Amino acid sequence: MKVKLRALFLALAFLAFQGCAATPRAPENKPLIPLDRANLQAVFEENDGLEVLPEDAKEIRDFYRGGVQQKAKAEMCFQEKIYPEAMKLYRSSNQFFLTLIRYIDEDAAVYNLFEGTDILFFPNLLMADNHLKIGLIYQAMGRDWRAKYNWKRALSLVKQSLQAEPTEWGLALEQELLSLLAAKKK
What is the helix (H) or strand (E) element at residue 59, kind and residue range? Predict the structure, then answer.
């Protein structure tokens, strides 16, 4: 009996310790990347072109480009309030990014795609924005708990992005998410 209690205590202590862990902020010595240099529109422009389909994606750059392209389509549907299609496209975009971050999970303002070609590389920040928009769609549908879940997921992705590459874009997204989550607590 004592052994079981001791094991239960250790398991609970371990879980409590894990719950106290926080994502550290970006190092202070890294400069903040301004919004005019790293932003959503710039990412869309860099990845415009021949559409990458899920079955055609073979390399990391294919998964990134496919995710960005799906996101661009989702943004148009979101702006036009075609929510079911936007939701489907945001999720498709996230699937591309989830495959990608298994191999490279850090965002970068300058990522060498191949010799002589650098791109804005923000899979975590783009997924966070997708979750933000999915949450806004759920909120419009009156499904507040689903919205809150997506916003919390988005916030963890933004923090991961900011840890790797501090950007004004990421900070603005973080503030928007914090205000949405604070409003839901009231």
Answer: none
Q: Encode pLDDT of 18-43 as tens digits.
A: 444 444 444 567 889 999 999 999 99
CB–CB of 106/164 below 8 Å?
A: yes
| Residue 124 CB burial class (10 angstroms; 0-12, 13-18, ≥19) | buried
**CATH fold of the domain at 35-185:** 1.25.40
Give which of 26, 30, 114 is closest to 65, Cα–Cα. 114
The tokens 């299609």 sit on which residue? 85
User: Hunting for tokens 């205590």 — which residue is that?
Assistant: 9
7, HSE (Cβ side, Cα atoms, 13 Å): 4
The H-or-E segment that residue 120 falls in is strand 117-121
Among the listed residues 92, 80, 81, 87, the one whose alpha carbon sits nearest the alpha carbon of residue 134:
87
Mean pLDDT across the chain, nearest whole number?
Answer: 87
The CA angle 98-45-53, to the nearest 5 degrees, is 45
For the chain, the structural domain boundaries read: 35-185
The residues with which 114 forms a beta bridge, in sequence order, are 117
End-to-end C-alpha distance for the chain, whole angstroms: 44
